[in-house]
What does this fold into?
Amino acid sequence: MRIRRAAAWLSALGGLLALAAQAAPPSLGSPAPELRAEPLAGGESQGLADYRGRVVYLDFWATWCAPCRISLPLLDGLRAEYAVRGFEVLGVSLDEERGKALQVVRQLGLRYPTLAAPEPASLLPFGIGQMPSAYLLDRQGRVRYIHQGFRRSDLPTIRSEIEKLLEEKS
Amino acid sequence: MSKDRIATSPALLALSAAAAALPGYSGPAQAWADESVEAGYRYSHYQEAALPASATNGGPGERYRVDSHQFHWLQPQGEAWDFKTDLMLETMSGASPWYVAPGSGGQAIQVLSGASIQDRRAVLQGRARQHLEQGRRALSLGISKEDDYLAYSGGVEAEWDFNQRRNTLSAGLGYSYDQLKPTDGGSARFPDRIAKADKDSFTAYAGLSQVLTPQTVAQLALSYSYSDGYLSDPYKLAYVDARLLPDNRPQDRNQWALTGRLRHYLRSLQAALHVDARYYTDSWGLASDSLEVAWVQKLPADWRLTPSLRWYQQGHANFYRPYYTVAREDGYYSSDYRLSAYGALSGRIAAEKSWRGFSFAAAVEAYESDGDLALRAVRDESPGLVDFLVVSAAVSYQWSLAPPAPRGTSTLQPEPALPTPVQVIPVTP
Amino acid sequence: MKTKSLLLAGALLLAGCGLQPVQPWQREDLARPEMAWERGLVEEGAIRSHTYQSKEAAIGGPALGGGGCGCN
It folds into this structure.
């Protein structure tokens, strides 16, 4: 009886074995996957190609993600600091409700462009491992650095990666 | 949190409030990043129902009550560490089951300790936790002191997130050294009561959680405990063939528990369903099942209402009897209702309200145990089964330690006119 | 009974394999405070399990408890 009951409990384990193959993030140095989406505030859809020639910090975030909330104003600061040297932050909000994200962007006064969520299929090649996930693209649009998660103490690392790419001749 | 931040970044505040609702909670959604201090206090009043006159042979059936005060402090240190301190002060009073004797018709009669027990308990527990890239690890230490009891405990725990945080593996190892010095132990009045005893307990557990759908997460865990030493109750006696002998249990005990937990969010109702189940078995021949279902309903104006229902049942330890008509060969005797077969049902309702940095909560729980609530028919139901009521109220306050956002980035200024990227002439080298 | 358990395990396993992996950006609902393993303020879970443990025989779960008590 006891063994049978233990077996009944153990059978629940079956439900836990939902494992599936993952998309890996693009390898460093390879061109960034294609991405097109409308700006949060509306308007013509944009793609990464529109930013070619600049070093771009492509940041996938969401309003419900706590580390994202820490990163947003700091990224805005980085953008203000390096814009003249050809740096841009491109935010992509992965919120289902666009309005919520737009409200946050406005209230924080973020000055960099933020896109609404693109087609989920186009996100898969990025291999987003956690929220937030960011991809630093060089002036040719190649992925040169990937930053997953965000802590305030990550900022110096991110800054040095940006500076490295800004110094590269295109 | 400075006034300045409240004035300048309401969005950030709104975000922090949502995320800070559970400090340190990382879960399957995101990397940890919480920098809020949390201070809290909870008061609980626990009251056992008096036993019916039929179970005590007309004697006073008044039982135990406990008043608990919990003080809680969670202090983050930088982005990677947090320190938690919990202090609990309890006062216990009332009578508790002493022994069970056969009545004139052979029915079991519960005899309660005559004098009212008065005891105090203080528990201090600390935990240092480090947040890593792919998980967390923690060290805990605790001390628990009563007039007649002293326990030191410690443990290490770790969690590892993998498979893009769809899975978390958690494990822990704990140890506790408990020392008993029963009141009046070895005295002329209670010559059979031990004067001093101790025990060691080791605990280990491992669990795996899995995100099943965007609204569902489940966890399965196995835990094991080994206790060695004095595991009897020094204040209890057993009626054995017209004699009263001290409660005497084996010197060691192996305990296993398999726990399953499920959380499911129902978007349309803005509510979460919680299901917690456990199967338990031990080397004293006792097995138990428990199932708890809770409904966490979000309501307007930051209210939350959580009704829950818990069912518990256990079989009896193989040496348990309400009373013994013949002596046992192994010499083990216990008439403690906690080792008897029974079932219990409890209903609970909790309300919670958040207001600025504050959270307020109140809850009431009614617990009833009965032989009829067990899985299988109970032959020798203990006359000492407990019914109790717990009423509690809590308040907590959170404030952020995060440095204010860099100047000029979080002010509510009108959005500067941004050139659209296609119009910008790329900076050419 | 044994066959029934096995069938149940098999069904759950199949259900598990049929699930799409949940992407990091799909976890808004999982991040809600209502979804936490532990509910309530100020160590509500700790005092509740302490209460049950001092009145019931069973112990154990996916966490470490503190030291014991001489609870009557």
